[in-house]
Amino acid sequence: MNMKALDILHQAIEKLTMLTGGTVTYLPDPQHPGKKEIDATVELTFGTRNTVFIIEVRNELRINHIPAVQKLKTETVQEFLLVCQYIPMPLKAQLRELKINYLEAAGNCYIETAEIFLYINDQQVTATRLPAEGKLWKMAGLKFLFAILRHPDLLNGPYRKIADEAGIALGNIGGYLEELRKEGFLRDGIINNTKGFFIEQNTRLMERWAEAYEANLRPREWIGNFRFMDQNNIKNWRELKTVDFKWGGENAAALMTGFLHPERFTIYITGNRVDMMKKLKLVPDPNGPVEMLQQFWRDEENDNTQATVPPLLAFAELITKYDSRDREAAERIKAKYLD
User: Fold this and answer.
1) pLDDT at position 215, please?
2) Which of 213, 245, 268, 296 is 20 to 30 A from 305 in CA distance terms?
3) Would you tell me how many other CB atoms lie within 10 Å of the CB of residue 241?
4) What pLDDT score was predicted for residue 91?
5) What average pLDDT does the segment 62-78 reach?
6) What pLDDT does residue 133 have?
7) What is the pLDDT of residues 187-223, one digit of tens each?
8) What is the spatial distance between Cα 149 and Cα 112, in angstroms, rounded to a whole number?
């Protein structure tokens, strides 16, 4: 275990004991020899109850890490605990669904065994514990990235055009481009016999954007969950007129690839929530299958009839889900529209 991982582990354990009153004993040797992923073995004590945990430490957790974490959990004899500096909120929900114990450096945790149940989710993640990411991966930066990933030619045009397409302030563009260059996603070269800029590592940038979108931008655009008053709309959803809304998620995949039969219904609206509820005959329901979000991008000129969100957004919504069908649909969208 390197010094960074050791520091994360010590921070997390110290915070956990402070919040819960429990005690933690580091056992001298990992009890899972031959597994390089195992970073430590600890015994967590509450009163007379002692539980041994095999620990894996990660600086940050991404959606594509979860299968490996789940595999490691199933291979351990003792209880398993994932310790991270920071875990995005959507990934915490997935870990809980998979019954994977986790602990953040800030003390937020989900730990469930036969003897223990701990769920802490109100500890503020301080700036020092967040991954070292700049403004590029916050809300406005993600809108900027969405624009240039959809329209790479914008990189060689005026900043004003990028700002207008992304719907962000003009003054941010130079900083975003510089950050993009520093992270190795922007290069200059010869394009059509003209010197200009182009995106490098396009697939990696799309995947990184998808993760950041799920964690930082999508929650800002989320309106709520609903259900159809007319249950026939579940079966006949393709017949609904897409006026002032577009299909995202599984619906977009079904329309783009013919692969999925949607179980959930995702719509991005351009107008008023109440008007859309009346139009589609929706009623609020926190457990409803219809998810409504606000559209954050600008439609193509002279094209207000597109029934689905842009392929990049459909890819992002599906690739960040743990469901294997959704991830396969995402890969099909990528192969057909984005490669």
Assistant:
1) 83
2) 213
3) 9
4) 85
5) 86
6) 54
7) 887 766 667 888 999 999 999 899 889 888 999 999 9
8) 41
* Residue 189 CA to its chain's centroid (Å): 32
Q: In this structure, what token pair is assigned to residue 215?
A: 């964690």
Cβ–Cβ contacts within 10 Å for residue 11, how many?
18
Tokens of 139: 């809300």
| CB neighbours of residue 216 within 10 Å | 17
What are the strands, taking DSSP E only, across the chain?
A: 23-26, 40-46, 49-60, 79-86, 102-104, 109-112, 117-120, 186-191, 194-199, 222-228, 245-248, 265-269, 282-284, 290-294
User: What is the reported pLDDT for 135?
Assistant: 86
Q: State pLDDT tens for residues 106-146.
A: 899 999 998 889 999 888 765 444 444 568 999 999 999 99
At 23, list the tokens: 């005690």
Task: Spell out the domains of the chain, with CATH numbers in brackets.
Answer: 3-120 (3.40.1350), 135-200 (1.10.10.10), 211-338 (no CATH)
Q: What is the pLDDT of residues 91-100, one digit of tens each?
A: 888 899 999 9
Cβ atoms of residues 96 and 111 within 8 Å:
no
Residue type, 62: R
249, 266 contact by CB (below 8 A) = yes
Is-contact 95 73, C-beta < 8 A?
no
Instruction: Name the residue type at position 307.
Output: A
pLDDT at position 127? 44
In angstroms, rounded to a whole number, what is the distance separating the alpha carbons of residues 64 and 324? 12
| Closest to 154 in 3D by CA, of 115, 191, 117, 105 | 191
Asked if 8 and 84 count as a contact pair (C-beta separation under 8 A), the reply is yes
**For residue 316, which phi and psi values (nearest 5 degrees)?**
-65, -40
